[in-house]
Amino acid sequence: MTDGDPVKRAKALLQDEARKTEAKKSVASRSPMVFWDRAFGTGSILWNSYLRPIWSIFGWPVRKYWNLCVRLFRKFSNKDGAYSKSRGAASIFGLSLFTLLFGFQLLFNAIPLAARFTYDAISINAFTRTDVLIFSQPNGVEGRPAELVVYACERYPCEAQFDSVEFRIRDSVYLDVMSYARHLQPHYPGELAGAFVSEENGCKVRYYGRRIKLLGLYPQITHAVCQPINGSNSEQVLDAVADVRLR
Predict the structure, then answer these.
(1) Half-sphere exposure of 81 (CA within 13 A, CB side)
(2) Which residue, 174, 172, 156, is CA-closest to 164?
(3) CA–CA separation, 153 vs 206, rounded Å?
């Protein structure tokens, strides 16, 4: 009776057609033409949505550098007005080597230096604060020879993580420029650390930035005036350094 039921036969036919259609789609999806069509469509979206805006910023210097390389190649690969294969090979090798070295310095030195200079310039001028705190002696940061760490708290005795803040002292190109302009000498983090003369110090400091653990950010000290303290004279020392004027 099942085979004679027209409704069930229609459902079976529809299911069979659906399976055939899915099978055809599965075979078609594995064909090279479908793969390249999807890859091209994805690449178009990637270029138009993400890469083109970036290229609009960096494309101009890249084109200028390419044109410069072409002119240099034409200049050095010709001898007496005729192209020389040996000179052309030497020109390509020299330009390629220079481009690799220049690109390495640009990516790993020049751009990070410019970013750090810009960050310091904005932060120091817009977000500098002054505070009077109790500080320990600075210590070196492992793996960062030009950076020092020093801990501070608001009152004596310090209550570990509930009352302490981690500060950093590091070199800064922006501070070097400003120090040259004012004092005709660079900014020395080691000499700044010399203000913290004892195991416990009452200090008036100028700093910028905040402690953001997830981002690895620390407040950075730029100026400090300190006096040694002990448990009995902490309040007097803090009051005394609070009246000191930072340069």
Answers:
(1) 0
(2) 156
(3) 15
